[in-house]
Design goal:
By secondary structure, the chain is an alpha/beta fold. The protein is built from 2 helices and 4 strands; from the N terminus they run E-H-E-E-H-E.
Length: 91
């Protein structure tokens, strides 16, 4: 079983790799390409797929819920849009 993590932010991607190495989140590959460049064929062979993965919060939460690492699931945490209060980073 290998998880797929898509995260464009280099700092967050580094965190993902460290958390994977420490076995704190599901073992997997970190893809730092833009989501617009990811094609369906790129996901072949991956069970869990985490898009906009951040620092692996979904993988950690799924483990906390006793969701097996190898059980298929897709997650996504889309970034805040500029028109939202959080996206404006004014708070």
């Amino acid at each position: 079983m290998t998880a797929y993590y898509n995260e464009i932010d280099a700092y967050a991607a580094g965190w993902l790799r460290n958390l994977i190495n420490e076995r704190l989140i599901a073992d997997g590959e970190v893809d730092t390409r833009s989501i617009v460049d990811v094609r369906p064929a790129d996901l072949a062979g991956f069970d869990p797929c985490h898009f906009f993965a951040g620092i692996g919060g979904w993988s950690l939460a799924l483990r906390g819920a006793r969701w097996p690492d190898a059980r298929p699931v897709w997650t996504g945490s889309c970034p805040c849009q500029p028109f939202s209060l959080i996206g404006k980073q004014a708070g």
